[in-house]
Amino acid sequence: PCRSVGTIVHVAIDGVYSGHIVISDVVKPSSAQAIAELKKQGVGKTVMLTGDTKSVADKVAADLGVDEVHSQLLPGDKVSEVERLLGETTGKAKLAFVGDGINDAPVLSRADIGIAMGAMGSDAAIEAADVVDDDPLKISRAIKISRKCIRIVYENIVFALGVKFACLLLGALGIADMGAAIFADVGVMVIAVLNAMRAL
Known about the structure:
- By secondary structure, this protein is of the alpha/beta class.
- The chain has 7 helices and 7 strands.
- It has helices at residues 31-40, 54-64, 75-88, 105-110, 123-128, 137-172, 178-196; strands at 7-13, 16-23, 47-49, 68-70, 96-99, 113-117, 131-133.
- Strands 5-6-7 form a 3-stranded parallel β-sheet. The chain has a two-stranded antiparallel sheet with strand order 1-2. The chain has a two-stranded parallel ribbon with strand order 3-4.
């Protein structure tokens, strides 16, 4: 018997068995590294939802380092699994789903963040997704960039409000003059813009 993982097609020529062909999806070369990078970024749990057979799904999940795998799922089953996972998320946790098939479109739209694998993806998946790209490695990069941007936004808000309140207080006490007020307005804006440029 064939021990290869995938869909086995047996071939006979003129009634004589000639062998078999194994048909299986090719895992993107960067997928295992992408999963590892996501875990480094603090992603708590990785789950694989697939319509493939259990043997194929279990092997791919083991190769990639996925925490949990659910196989032989129909599109409706995937939505149910995502609903369950959404129910398990607490606090500020978000659920992101990565898919490329037409069967993934309902799940991509239901997840907090839907990511479609662009060039290989179906039009329906691309339409339903929030983010479209081809490289799984860019997902962890996107998380890193977004966290940096949010940090810069908070820095700018705290800095701007702090300087403005300080200027108001000093103005009320008669210490701040017009120059301080101009700095609190224009100066703070320039500094905030320069700080925001770090995101580039």
